[in-house]
Amino acid sequence: MRSRKNRGRAPLAAMDQINVTPLLDLTFLLLIAFMITMPLMEYGTSINPPEMNSDKLPDVDFKSITITKQGTIMLDKDAVSREELPGKLAAVKADNPKVQLLLRSDGERSYAEVMELMALIRRSGFADVTLVTQAEKSPK
């Protein structure tokens, strides 16, 4: 006689394969999403710097100071006032003395305003500031 437990049921078979297709689909989807969004996250503030030939920018140990078209000063992605900037830069210098500063400014901001900001940066303890520009368009 059969026992009541096994009546009408098929025996359970062990699974010896794992379907990885959905896992690969998800992996490729995430890879594509990160490839698209990472360049946008690098410089979140939209500015149009002047054109000029320049050296390659550093990949590590840098902070970015940006003057937007409207005149807002940004330290990395945070808006700061002219009064707050020296204190924040002094804290950055204390945390990492080897950090480099990149100064980005919209092309419509005046030269005097950029030089005033550079003087403020120098008074904060940074002797070397890199000005970020766009690469010149090659003549046709």
Write a concise keyword list for the protein shown above:
alpha/beta, 140 residues, Nucleotidyltransferase, domain 5, 5 strands, elongated, 3 helices
Textual characterization of the structure:
This protein has 140 residues and is α/β, with parallel strands linked by helices. It has a domain at 62-132: 2-Layer Sandwich (Nucleotidyltransferase, domain 5), CATH 3.30.420. The chain contains three helices and five strands. The protein has helices at 21-42, 85-95, 111-123; strands spanning 62-67, 73-75, 78-80, 100-105, 129-132. The protein has a five-stranded mixed β-sheet, covered by helices on one side. Strand 4 (100-105), helix 3 (111-123) and strand 5 form a beta-alpha-beta unit. It is elongated, with a radius of gyration of 28 Å. The N and C termini lie far apart (93 Å). The mean pLDDT is 77.
CATH architecture group name of the domain at 62-132:
2-Layer Sandwich
Instruction: Please mark out the parts with pLDDT under 50 across 5 or more consecutive residues, or reply none.
Output: none
H/E element string? HEEEHEHE
Number of strands: 5
Give the averaged pLDDT, no decimals.
77
